[in-house]
Each structure stands twice: as C-alpha cells, then as structure tokens.
Amino acid sequence: MAVCVQSQSALSLRALVAGNVTRLRQQAHVAVESVAQTAQLVGMPWTANWVSSMEHGTRSLSAEQLLALPVVLSMALGHRVSLADLLAGDSPVALAPDHDPLPPGYVRDIVTGTPYHRPFATVGADATTLLMAANVAAVEKMRQIRAANLGDVDVRTLGTAEAGAGQAEARLAKRLGVPEIIVIAAAASLWGRSMSDERDRLLREAESATAVNRQLSHAIAERIKQARAGSESASQPSDPLAK
C-alpha cells in the first residue's frame, strides 16, 4: 500500500510528464515540429501546437497518447525513451488536486514495474513485444538517415516513399552498399515518392525501362554522394587562412 507524503512541492502527473518531455527534447536539440512530424509518421495526428501545449501542461493526455509518447520520442530524439523516463523526478506526484500526493518512486514502480506473473500458459509475442520491436527498428532507420545527412527529409514524405518501395530500392541499395532506407530517403528528397513509384510514372511516358532505371539509379547515387560530402564538409573545422 502506498504511503502518502506532504503535498508541498508536489507535481501533477500531467506536469511531471510535460517537464520530462521538454527536458528530453531540449537535451537532444530537437524541435517540437520534428516531434510532431515523427508522431504523424506512426499515425498520431499531433501538430507542433499540440506538442507545445502538452509540454506546457495545458493538455491532458489519453492513455493511448501517453503510451505512444515514448515510441514517438525514441524515433524523434534518436535514442531509447521509456515510460519511466517520462516519470523521472524527485517531487511527490499528485494524482488529483484534492488528495495527498504519492512518493515519486512508488508511482514509477507501479507504472513501469514488471507484470505480476499469473499461472497462464506461455504465449507467443504479444502486441507490446511487437511494438517494441517496431520501435527499435524505426529508431535505427532514423539513425541511419541522419548519419547519411538526409535527416532533413519530411517524415510524411519518407513514410510515403517507404510504403511505395520495392525490389528496385533493395537492388540499388545492395549495389551502392548502403541500407535500403538510405535509398528510400534519397528518393523521397528528390521526388517526394519512392524510386519505384517514380519509375512507374516515367515508364508511362518512355519506352525504355532500362534507360529509366539507369536515370533514377544515377540520380539517387548522386543525391547520396552529395549528402555524404555535405556531412563530411560540415564535420571539418573551418580554416580562416584557407584560400
């Protein structure tokens, strides 16, 4: 049974989560617009204004939104964010304004602790396991895109390009020696769609599929090369004496 504590300096659950989201986002130097775009990529209709009002503690979160936050933040910030991270803090937590607050450690343990083991038969991967796996994969893709200096592509456009990708992207990625998501991101930045979709569009106007494939492959290879060159240039210290 939880032990209540004095109400002074207590935080509401909403304020606690809001403060931690702001802290994590600012530490990663990520804008609220990027968080909103990432949320839209996974199907959450969050806008920059929505994220901002949530961080200011003026917006209540549904259970679905609270559970989606760590997934969205992990993708947007480029590192793992758990629900426990959103409940971090030393202040007592008030679940309701007219009730005594609870110790912060108790709240975190109840919300993020291991499940109670019931004598049920062992089952296969559940929705939570699948969501965690998808989260890890999405974070890795975003890391690869940023490492290739293609992180400025709009996440909604990237989602469209990834949905339309096919064997053409896989073959080109293998030939260029890069992850397939890099080819997809390059295509999204060039045409706002996948290489496969752009090829299908051009084939309606051209007779040679070989020429179209060669043209698109060359364009993507050049885009990846330019992005890599830009990243390397930005990482070099400027020399004021260089001519």
Any descriptors?
single chain; 243 residues; mainly alpha; 434 Repressor (Amino-terminal Domain); 2 domains; two-stranded parallel sheet; 12 helices; 61% helix; disordered N terminus; disordered C terminus
Question: Can you describe what's shown?
Answer:
This protein is mostly helical and 243 residues long. It folds into two domains: 11-112, 434 Repressor (Amino-terminal Domain) (Orthogonal Bundle), CATH 1.10.260; 140-233, no CATH class. Helices cover 61% and strands 2% of the residues. The protein has twelve helices and two strands, in the order E-H-H-H-H-H-E-H-H-H-H-H-H-H. The protein has helices spanning 13-27, 32-41, 48-55, 63-77, 83-86, 104-112, 127-147, 155-163, 167-176, 180-191, 195-203, 209-235; strands spanning 11-12, 93-94. The chain has a two-stranded parallel ribbon. Helix 2 (32-41) packs across helix 4 (63-77) and helix 11 packs antiparallel against helix 12. Mean pLDDT is 82; it is low at 1-8 and 237-243.
CATH topology grouping of the largest domain: 434 Repressor (Amino-terminal Domain)
- Number of helical regions: 12
Give the structural class: mainly alpha
SSE run: EHHHHHEHHHHHHH
Largest sheet: 2 strands, parallel
CA(first)-CA(last) distance:
72 Å
> Spans of 5+ residues with little confidence (pLDDT < 50)?
1-8, 237-243
Helix fraction bin: 55-70%
Regarding CATH, which class of the largest domain? Mainly Alpha
Question: From the 3D coordinates, which CATH architecture of the largest domain would you assign?
Answer: Orthogonal Bundle
Mean pLDDT: 82
The whole-angstrom Rg is: 23 Å
